[in-house]
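Memo subject: From amino acid sequence to discrete backbone structure tokens
Keywords: amino acid chain, backbone geometry, structure tokens, three-dimensional fold.
Body of memo: The sequence and its backbone structure tokens, given next.
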Amino acid sequence: MSDRKRLEELHLLLTEHSHLYYVLDEPQISDGEYDRLFQEMLKIEEAHPDWVTSDSPSQRIGGAVLDKFEQVQHRLPMLSLENAFADRDLYAFEDRLLRFLLTDVRPGYMTEPKLDGLAVELVYEYGLFVQGSTRGDGSTGEDISAQLRTVTSIPLRLRQTDIPRLEVRGEVFMDRTGLAKLNQQRAEDGEPLFANPRNAAAGSLRQLDPKITAKRPLRFYVYAVADPADTDCKTQQELLQFLGSLGFPVSDLICFCPDIKTVIKRFAELSTLRHDLAYEIDGMVVKVNDFALQERLGAKARAPRWAIACKFPAIQATTKIVKVDFQVGRTGAVTPVAILDPVDVGGVMVSRATLHNADEILRKDLRIGDTVLIQRAGDVIPEIVKPVLEKRDKDAEPIIIPQNCPVCSHLLVKPKGEAVTRCVNPHCPAQRLRSIIHFCSKAGLDIEGLGKKSVEQLFDLQLIKDLPDIFKLQKADLEVLDGWGEKSADNALSGIEAAKKPVLSQFLAALGIRYVGEVTAGLLESTFLSLERLLTVTREELLEVDGLGEQAASSIADYFSDPSVREMMNAFHDAGVQPQVLVQREENLLLTGEVLLFTGSLKKLSRTEAKKLVKDHGGQIASGITKKLTCLVVGEKPGSKLKKAQEKGIRILTEDEFVAMLS
């Protein structure tokens, strides 16, 4: 079988198995077998980049970083819904329908769970996903196509390809487990937590770097099309069945109800079920089932007459703020945490709630001793909604934001433009502990046998004071500790030994440098190729790396120029830690030593393909006209960069000349 035929076969296989796993929850092969097929596909695509199609499963791993989101005009507006909060509101809804239709015949209804996520529109042309956008203001949204491609339950190719254009609408959301894991990681990284699934989904989809979105555990359920006339379906029930047959995930909680009494009964059932669901719902949507009736009913200014949202009451309770603690994260972020009189909120005893930052405290006007309304945001993180001012005691005390770190007493700073107050002392014990925990965690070097509790124990006993101390631990130190023994000591030491030769990018991500995650660490490895080179890197050199912004460049340069960091790197070396580089640059390639920049619209290549060609031939990509730039490749309408390059005497190539040079 030819490579081309095998690639087509792999596309079909992986698409089908992805649908079985992510949509139907009925996997038919192991994760290992799926990974093997995926790697085989990547290998063929790397050898033949011109064979990569927009619906390839490889396109889910994230594309180029965007400068900003473009605006998208919805062909038909994405309207909001009116709300119902009680049975009488639903009866009134039906009465309005019957009066408008001039009939006594009650229509049937489709009821669907109201997901707590972000509404999106997906556009398909002849079965291929071509664009995705947010709801925005209903008329205009933001183009998040690259981000939506990474959501595994959104099909990139439909099972029916004869529909010229189909505009599908649905909800992107995050389930409870995914949100809890994401927030746990953000807490370890000293980042603010997502308050609820909606914020998590919106925050993930609005990342300019799609690779970040790809790492977020997002899911999707379809619930409508912009215009039912684009299908042969006559009812909402028929439409959802049809969309499921095309490959879209449809909630298994949808239910047809012949009348409003049955709708009310179904709402009561969902109210009971909601706490046992894997994901958060905040109500139920009721729609007239018949599309002909929907068309007759039409819409008002902002909402259709034929649908209504039944909202669940929020899971809230009142209690008192006893005091406020200030916790120091790995990056020095100081987060205020309210200590509360324990209270039952939706079946869970809550005694702590995050206050996020000083600005949030001021905005909500919170004080120690206040009676406050709290809720479990997304049923995961307790948050304070507001103080109950009618019950405020005269002796309620203002919450004083400390000027010094609560752990090391170092002066705190609040960087311009940021809401978070930080301890900038690199030797702060709280930061050091969280840094060590991160270094050993799955997000770091994933050292087996050194979990969070073990690291805290070793830190308290001063067996580990800094990161290099991990690699100096001895069996005699460990096996005598409480909860340890010979076997657990051997396991930890084996894990430590295995971590002595990490991939450089993994090592860099484990260090916990601010603004350096997995993607940025990979850029640093592929550009500078060694830890020794990074120790001498300048901010200007970092700014020339395609994909690195000013904040990240400044943070990285400051980090490696710190004398204490250099001492730590020497200690790593002395302990036998030798980061390995996977990407090796060949010295005799056509563009070795060349730094290229593209401007204007390219016709034969996408910008991503052009940059990949440069890197494959040993060159580097610049982010602007700099003194290191050796060549500017111009497409149509090149703009001001062309004039600047001409003034500096930089070599200029057309797109055709660039392609011809490489071929």
About this structure: The CA atoms of residues 543 and 553 lie 6 Å apart. The chain has six domains: 3-61, 83-311, 316-409, 429-498, 504-574, 595-662. The longest strand covers residues 316-328.
